[in-house]
Structures are given as structure tokens and as C-alpha cells.
Amino acid sequence: RDKGFKEYSNQVVPYCVLENIDAYAPPLLELMDRTAELNEVIEEYYARFITGDLGLDRFDDFVRQWRRRGGDSVLEELNKWYEEYAG
Fold first, then answer.
1. Which letter does DSSP use for residue 25 in this model?
2. The dihedral of CA 43, 49, 52, 57: what is its sign?
3. How far apart are CA 47 and CA 44, in angstroms?
4. What is the pTM of this model?
């Protein structure tokens, strides 16, 4: 069963864009633990960017904050899962 899907998937994937690959991941503990906190960071900074409270020159600050609050560990876990899934 998996072999047939993998063959089909390999033909289709070059034409697909998966924007939210984490939506396809199984429950990952780090992702589940950090999602709410990371979403708070995203919402706070996005609102401040949109309202002009922060200029886009502060985008790197947003990335640092997101990474510091758990983004790096979530990305590590997602990348590990993806390597196993896509491998």
C-alpha cells in the first residue's frame, strides 16, 4: 500500500506546494506544547507590523523572539518528522 502511494506521491509532489506541512504531521509533543505560545508571538508582532507600531526593519526581532520562545525546538521536531516521512 505505501509503495503505491509513494510512487504516486513522487510524481505529484514536484507540482504541489504544501504551505502548512505541520497540518499533515502526527501529534508531535513539542509542537502541541508550544503552539499556543508561538501563536501569541506571531499575533502580537503581526498586529504591531500591520498597525505600524513596529517597522519591518524589526522583523529579525520577531524571528529571534519566536525562536527563543520555542520555535527552534518545534522546527527541529517537524524537520525530523519530515525527513522520516519524505525519506
1. S
2. positive
3. 5
4. 0.67
